[in-house]
Design goal:
This protein has about 280 residues and is of the alpha/beta class. The chain contains 8 helices and 8 strands; from the N terminus they run αααβαββαβαβααβββ.
Length: about 280
Amino acid sequence: MLKLRAGIVELYKKVATSLPPDVETALEALYALEAEGSSSKQALSIILESIRLSRETARPVCQDTGVPVFYVKVPRGLSQKELENTIKDATRIATEKVPLRANAVDIIAEQNTGDNTGIGFPIIYFEESENSTLIIDLMLKGSGCENLGQTYKLPVEELGAERDLEGVRKCVLDAVFKAQGRGCPPYTIGVAIGAQKDQVAKLAKQQLLRKISDKNKNEALAALEEKLLNDINQLGIGTLGFGGPSTAIGVKIGVNHRHPASYFVDISFSCWANRRGTLIW
């Protein structure tokens, strides 16, 4: 497990200091759309320069290195408890080595552990894999954008949102409008629909792992993702709330079956620094 631990430390470093190419490309495309001399174009210019400098100097792209969220696909027979311990050990090392900002705070004592580990910290989701490969996805989720997340129980009378995809669209637009540029847009937005609140919260965040260029396999959801992205970028909120057409770079939707009596929708926001990466072992 020592080699795996070292691999996870390197994954932390990569995710913290180098944004995925698809995210950077999407931000560059929005920069080209902004009006010359506008505040949003200037802000995007600074963002893109920060991305470049972070990669060159191997320093975190944002001072808030967020909450580490792991999605782990585990081959049959490999101990999940042992993997959890390895991830926590790697987290302690990465906090000092990368370095990561220490963000794990004890709820009762209100004391920071200093190493990004604690009760339920980092967050780790395990799923059994059908093959022999261990796949570890890591997201460093900033709390500024996490605080913007919304859960809706459809129907929502004040939005005119019924239990259908049009109702989902209205919920997403409402969540973005309420955000009003907080949480550092351009956003990547994860959306999930399902039967239970905890189920959709997990699935919505998991959508943020998808590449910006990824097209939903379901045609109806693919069409809704595209329409929502266009609608959001017509709200005029813009980069960092400065106005303009650059409020979001992507919308990704996941679904579960639901109960006849429930229709939950969760919306999860990522700031422009959608920090994610994968380790295949």
